[in-house]
Structure formats: structure tokens, C-alpha cells
Design brief:
The chain is α/β, with parallel strands linked by helices and 241 residues long. It has nine helices and nine strands.
């Protein structure tokens, strides 16, 4: 694939390409799919709790709970209040296989390959759980991942159905990106940054980038992108993977 961002850029000490995941690289969201994947293969009786998942969604729509609380409630209902990493890890791997086999935009994979070939360090920044995002990232050859972390008060053995820190979304995601840049001694002046996202919540990340791409954008981002001078691409145009 010819790189749509293939314009000459000065030499920089660092080149970074930041990707959102859900509906940017993937064709659909992965969070609900992961919960269903685990429930169907681990404790099918939990599917009887789906009406309560619907109630939690309604509470979120009415702004009675926030995204973090919604995610924790659904995880508790469909996976459990507390579970062993060794028990969930194989299901995370099989879910990653499923997503990579049938749920990715081919054009996104081609862009990832083009950025890698152009010398960009790839960063996957997503609100989805590290629990399965890491497995997807490994399959895509992406080493650097920022994702929502779950609480592990018992160490690496047990995971609890509650978030550790902020949901990696919007401003909180950009704060994580800023911390990652600092930890890797990447200053803004010494870096050329590309950013890709489908959703307007990633406005901070897109605004930060030298080259921002609205990928198969949501309605609000599709309206905002031309005002900000951001490129708009439709990665649904090519099917195949």
C-alpha cells in the first residue's frame, strides 16, 4: 500500500505513530465481544445476566454511571468479581486470534506496515482492557501498548473486576500518552507524530500529532476533521481480513 501520508519530513530523533484500536484498526468494538467470548466458553450461566448488562447500559445512557463504572459492572456480570489470570489468559489469546482472523480493516494493517517501514515506533492506545489488547498487539507486531488496566491487588495471580486508575479514554488516554513519551525520553520538539482514530474523543491525541488521520470516522469526528485540517480516510473500503 502506498503510504497516504507519504510526504517528506525533516529528520527527527523519534518518529511515533499512535493508533486507537476499536473501530480504527478493528471493524467493530472489541469490549463486548470479549466479555461474550469469555462467558460462552467459561461460565455459560452468566449469559442469563445479560438483562442486567442492558440495565447497566441504560444507566450509562442516562448518565447515572460513567464509562469506568459501566465497564466494571459488565466485567463482573459476565466474567466474575475475581478471577485467575491463568484461567482467563487462554481465552484472551483465543479472542485475539478471532479478532485478527476476521475483525480487522485490511487498510489499517497496510498503514501499520507502511509506518513501520518508514521507521515509526508504533503505539497502540486504547480504552479496551490490557487483558486482551496485549494479545492483539503481539499479533500485529506492536510492542508499545497503553490500555485500561484492571486491579490486581493479589499480584499477578488474581484480577478483580474493577479498574486500576483511569479508563484509558479521551483526556485520560492523552495523559497516558504524555507519560509514555516522558518515560521514553521523547520530547515533542524531537519527534514527528502521526495519529489515527475513528472517534472524536481522541481529539487531544489527534490535535497533538503533526499528521492526524480520522479513520472511518464517527459522525462528530467527520464534521470536526475538515475544520482542523485532518485527513479523512474510509478504511471500510477494502475488505479481506
Amino acid at each position: 500500500m502506498e503510504d497516504p501520508l507519504a510526504t517528506p519530513t525533516p529528520d527527527y530523533a523519534h518518529r511515533v505513530a499512535m493508533y486507537d484500536m476499536d473501530r480504527t484498526i478493528t471493524r467493530s468494538g472489541t469490549y463486548s465481544g470479549f466479555l461474550m467470548h469469555v462467558a460462552q466458553r467459561r461460565q455459560q450461566w452468566r449469559l442469563l445476566l445479560l438483562p442486567f448488562v442492558g440495565l447497566a447500559g441504560a444507566a450509562y445512557s442516562l448518565r447515572l454511571i460513567d464509562r469506568s463504572r459501566l465497564k466494571a459492572i459488565n466485567l463482573r456480570l459476565l466474567v466474575g468479581k475475581r478471577f485467575r489470570r491463568t484461567e482467563i489468559a487462554p481465552l484472551a489469546e483465543s479472542y485475539a486470534d478471532k479478532v485478527v482472523a476476521r475483525g480487522l480493516h485490511s487498510a489499517a494493517l497496510e498503514q501499520i506496515a507502511a509506518d513501520r517501514e518508514a521507521g515509526y515506533r508504533l503505539l497502540l492506545a486504547t480504552a479496551s482492557f490490557h487483558l486482551y489488547v496485549d494479545a492483539i498487539a503481539r499479533r500485529l507486531g506492536i510492542d508499545d501498548v497503553l490500555a485500561t488496566q484492571l486491579d490486581e491487588p493479589d499480584g499477578a495471580d488474581h484480577i478483580h473486576a474493577r479498574l486500576a486508575g483511569d479508563n484509558c479514554y479521551g483526556e485520560a488516554k492523552f495523559a497516558r500518552i504524555s507519560d509514555w513519551l516522558a518515560a521514553n525520553e521523547i520530547t515533542r520538539e524531537a519527534a514527528h507524530v502521526r495519529a489515527y482514530s475513528d472517534h472524536v474523543s481522541d481529539h487531544p491525541m489527534l490535535h497533538f500529532a503533526d499528521e492526524a488521520v480520522a479513520t472511518t470516522p464517527s459522525r462528530k469526528l467527520k464534521l470536526l476533521a475538515p475544520q482542523m485540517g485532518w485527513q479523512v480516510v474510509d478504511w471500510r473500503a477494502r475488505r479481506g481480513r
